[in-house]
């Protein structure tokens, strides 16, 4: 029984399941129901993410949800370090990167399709950010800068998320791939491209609204300071 438990494939499966369950924590839904008596999915965009939480429940709740969604992606990706507990599992840099991507992806899927919230989740952007911070904080900070610059220039959260997501393959392969060969693995290239496609796909309705000029803008200033 002990040898069965320590089998690498069993250990990996357990970590993937744990990562999915971490991603499935519906922070916006739980906070909305327990503290505001609202299900954020019934208001605003109907999305169970941080952006809609800011819109429906306000900044305090939105900030907590945002941080929780980032941290669950970070901790899920960091589960790779528990693999060292397994005495039969020894892996190199390339394999570790692949495992981290897999664990982070499980967390993002958990956020999109949370088992604890009837599989109605958010868009996974904050959880994806946590994955990036666990894997390479420099790439995460650059992607975050792209998001923030776009947000402050256009006030569109969706556009900032889309541009940041699209930048991820280029950041991994083009800018950091020369110094870190593990980022030029076919698996990493395909994964980052898939993430970019996923970000665009989950924002398809936002893209339509952007093209039609109907997308909602974020209120970046307090009401008494907004320029009329």
Features:
228 residues, 2 domains, 11 helices, mainly alpha
Polypeptide structure, described:
The protein is mostly helical and 228 residues long. The chain has 2 domains: 1-135, no CATH class; 136-222. It has 11 helices and no strands. The protein is globular, with a radius of gyration of 19 Å.
Briefly characterize the structure.
This protein has 228 residues and is an all-alpha fold. Helices cover 66% and strands 0% of the residues. The chain is globular.
Q: What is this structure's SSE topology?
A:
Elements: H1 2-5, H2 8-23, H3 27-35, H4 50-57, H5 59-77, H6 93-112, H7 125-135, H8 137-154, H9 157-175, H10 186-202, H11 204-212
Helix pairs in contact: 2-5, 2-6, 3-5, 4-5, 5-6, 5-7, 6-7, 7-8, 8-9, 9-10
Structural class: mainly alpha
Instruction: State the distance separating the first and last CA atoms.
Output: 69 Å
Low-pLDDT regions:
224-228
Sheet with the most strands? none
């Amino acid at each position: 029984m002990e040898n069965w438990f320590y089998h690498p494939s069993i250990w990996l499966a357990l970590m993937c399941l744990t990562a999915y369950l971490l991603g499935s924590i519906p922070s916006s839904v739980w906070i909305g129901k327990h503290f505001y008596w609202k299900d954020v999915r019934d208001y605003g965009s109907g999305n169970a993410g941080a952006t809609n939480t800011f819109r429906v429940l306000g900044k305090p709740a939105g900030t907590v949800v945002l941080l929780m969604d980032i941290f669950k992606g970070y901790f899920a990706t960091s589960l790779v370090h528990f693999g060292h507990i397994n005495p039969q599992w020894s892996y190199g840099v390339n394999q570790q990167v692949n495992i981290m991507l897999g664990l982070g992806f499980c967390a993002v899927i958990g956020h999109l399709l949370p088992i604890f919230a009837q599989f109605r989740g958010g868009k996974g952007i904050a959880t994806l950010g946590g994955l990036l911070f666990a894997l390479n904080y420099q790439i995460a900070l650059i992607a975050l800068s792209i998001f923030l610059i776009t947000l402050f220039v256009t006030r569109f959260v969706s556009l900032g998320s889309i541009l940041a997501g699209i930048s991820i393959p280029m950041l991994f392969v083009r800018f950091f791939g020369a110094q870190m060969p593990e980022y030029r693995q076919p698996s990493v290239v395909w994964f980052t491209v898939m993430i970019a496609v996923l970000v665009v796909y989950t924002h398809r309705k936002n893209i339509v609204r952007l093209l039609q000029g109907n997308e909602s803008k974020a209120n970046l200033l307090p009401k008494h300071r907004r320029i009329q």
